[in-house]
Fold:
Amino acid sequence: MPITSVWLTCQIPARDQRRGRYVRETSSHPAKMLPHLAAHAISAYTVPGDVVFDPMCGCGTTLVEAMHLGRQGIGIDIEPRYAALAEANVALAASHGAAGAATVIAGDATDLLDLVPASAVGRVSLVLTSPPYGRGTHGLVQTSRTGVRKRDHLYGDRGRGNLAYAGWSRLLDGFASILSASYRLLRPGGIVVITSRPVRRQRDDLIDLPGELLAAARSAGLVPVQRTAAMLAAVRDGQVVHRASMFGLMAVRRSRDDGIPVHLVAHEDVLVLRRP
Structure:
């Protein structure tokens, strides 16, 4: 697959990318990677038989797409219910005849070298992951006679040490620790792909999360190779057709009403790094 600067990963809606390929309960995870984004990265940076690792695998998107492409997946998630969800998706992929296989581990990825099989050290071709952006996301919308409310928009267990609840400084420190341990798993020349986007905490407070993650990756000894954009929107006749949520649209409108020139986010930053 040619490596391009823009990945057209959302030309069909995310729900259609997952329909029939993932169990229905997958919608309960608050921050799911796009299947087409994962598949693009795996196709671009690995070959069949390679090992793909996700230290924060969530509902198992990285693992499922690796399996369908004939790769071997290993994933960790700190919340047992999401690890169980990833296992269900891995089982579904196997039932669909996926050529690869995957292992899901419930545990804290900051201790990943104590969790993964020793045989994986030095053998991973690709680490593909996305960190949490905070304790909550836009989630799903449920409408009733009493109004509109969100559901499935929060990570589950604050007490388990989930980095989603750690605050920015501890989140970045924890992610840097995970990257340092992941470095040990990579084969020489192995690739790390991190997806993220800038985060707006207040209407006029934009956090450059991709830039912070890039600094953390470099501190772990990884060498930057490329920075690309993975579309969160469709492109039709040269025009971008956004797929923003109602809450995202409302936030932009409120900010513009206050005179802050905010735009919808229509892509994720993709950081590509290599172990020397």
